[in-house]
């Protein structure tokens, strides 16, 4: 879903809306907030939550509200940047940037599609990893633990994690020693299994250990896993607001936080998070972005604006018509996203693609 916000001069800002509730509920909530802002306009994107009377505590605890606010703030920031005639990264305090480096998340290329379930064998993971390298990514991420889900009956490394480890071994073999490998565990483990799993990830030289547990819900367990880990521990993809991410890094919960432009408070908040944390902890912020082209592009502007030192996530290979959602079309080549030259995002929704592929409904 997309949100467009237009000012009285006709500048239209764009954002993606995707979230943790039924699409119509999120759309309804966003429309309600938009109407309140229309009647009582904020000074700018940073003023949206105050204007809606929402507190940080409410938004940390309520993901649908955080999602609606994030989309509106990103769309308004894009509109403001267009009105000012500058790129979104410049509007957010950075500089005009030609391109941003990406890492290749292969998960979406392996999801079930219209042709049914995909092959999830180690060989299929290896083939996807080779494709990621062919596409130019220097860092590859996978989420291989389909069969594992805590609690487990046995202590130590659970039997249910074995096939996931086989997939990781196959991926490492396919990409060779020089490509970095990130592994996402989708909060499927617990303290004991999370510590045991980290030790076996070392054998495949995994560089990034994401969400063994949900580090926002259970920071104490995450801290204990991180204390023993030899690789970077990452997560917090559903978090809202700079204060939460600051607590996570300053509290030693994780090495890397992953604010998502769709939930964290939007493009302006993502830049605040990067600016708050990166100077003292370089590499501590890497935006979560298993997103469509509008969020991908806004996340590239945000990463450029806070001078992120990590590559930005890109979930390649989900739909071959994806680039045509925007005009000019999304341009991702050799592991980099290229930022179009125009003001704001530099791209808008392509009405022909919306007509052909989209779905409309009335609230
Ligand atoms: Mg993840």
**Major sheet, described briefly?**
9 strands, mixed
The ligands bound in this entry are: magnesium ion
Topology-level CATH name of the largest domain:
TIM Barrel
Mean pLDDT: 96
CATH class of the largest domain: Alpha Beta
What do you see in this structure?
The structure is a single chain. The chain has 363 residues and is of the alpha/beta class. The protein has two domains: 2-86, Enolase-like, domain 1, CATH 3.30.390.10; 91-349, Alpha-Beta Barrel (TIM Barrel), CATH 3.20.20.120. It is 39% helix and 14% strand. It has 13 helices and 13 strands. The strands form three sheets. Strands 3, 4, 5, 6, 7, 8, 9, 11 and 12 form a nine-stranded mixed beta sheet that branches. Helix 8 runs parallel beside helix 9. The longest helix is centred in the N-terminal third of the chain and has 22 residues, at 63-84. The model has no long low-confidence stretch (mean pLDDT 96). Residues 184, 210-211, 237 line the site of magnesium ion.
Topology:
Elements: E1 2-6, E2 12-16, H1 23-39, H2 48-51, H3 56-61, H4 63-84, H5 88-91, E3 99-105, H6 122-134, E4 139-142, H7 162-175, E5 180-184, H8 191-202, E6 206-210, H9 219-228, E7 232-235, H10 242-250, E8 256-257, H11 267-277, H12 293-305, E9 312-315, E10 326-327, E11 331-333, E12 336-338, E13 348-349, H13 351-357
Parallel strand pairs: 3-4, 3-9, 4-5, 5-6, 6-7, 7-8
Antiparallel strand pairs: 1-2, 3-12, 10-13, 11-12
Helix pairs in contact: 1-4, 6-7, 8-9, 10-11, 11-12
Magnesium ion binds near residues 210 and 211.
């Amino acid at each position: 879903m997309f949100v467009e916000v237009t000012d009285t001069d006709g500048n239209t800002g764009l954002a993606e809306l995707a979230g943790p509730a039924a699409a119509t509920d999120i759309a309804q909530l966003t429309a309600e907030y938009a109407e309140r802002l229309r009647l009582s306009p904020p000074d700018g994107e940073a003023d949206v939550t105050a204007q809606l009377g929402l507190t940080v505590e409410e938004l940390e605890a309520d993901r649908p509200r955080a999602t609606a606010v994030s989309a509106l703030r990103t769309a308004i920031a894009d509109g403001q940047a267009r009105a000012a005639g500058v790129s979104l990264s410049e509007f957010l305090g950075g500089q005009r940037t030609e391109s941003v480096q990406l890492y290749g998340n292969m998960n979406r290329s392996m999801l079930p599609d219209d042709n049914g379930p995909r092959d999830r064998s180690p060989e299929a993971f290896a083939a996807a990893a080779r494709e990621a390298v062919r596409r130019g990514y220097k860092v590859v991420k996978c989420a291989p633990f389909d069969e594992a889900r805590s609690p487990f009956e046995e202590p130590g490394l659970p039997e249910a994690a074995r096939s996931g480890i086989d997939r990781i071994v196959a991926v490492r073999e396919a990409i060779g020693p020089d490509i970095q490998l990130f592994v996402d565990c989708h909060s499927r483990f617990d303290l004991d299994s999370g510590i045991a799993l980290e030790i076996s990830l070392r054998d495949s030289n995994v560089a990034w250990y994401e969400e063994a547990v949900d580090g926002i819900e259970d920071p104490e367990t995450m801290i204990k896993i991180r204390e023993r880990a030899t690789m970077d521990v990452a997560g917090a993809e559903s978090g809202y607001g700079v204060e939460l991410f600051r607590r996570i890094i300053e509290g030693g919960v994780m090495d890397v936080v992953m604010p998502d432009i769709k939930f964290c408070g939007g493009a302006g908040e993502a830049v605040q998070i990067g600016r708050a944390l990166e100077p003292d902890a370089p590499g501590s912020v890497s935006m979560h972005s298993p997103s469509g082209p509008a969020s991908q592009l806004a996340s590239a502007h945000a990463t450029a604006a806070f001078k992120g030192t990590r590559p930005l996530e890109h979930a390649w290979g989900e739909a071959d018509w994806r680039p045509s959602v925007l005009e000019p079309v999304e341009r991702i080549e050799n592991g980099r996203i290229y930022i179009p030259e125009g003001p704001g995002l530099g791209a808008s929704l392509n009405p022909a693609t919306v007509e052909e592929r989209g779905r409309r409904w009335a609230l």
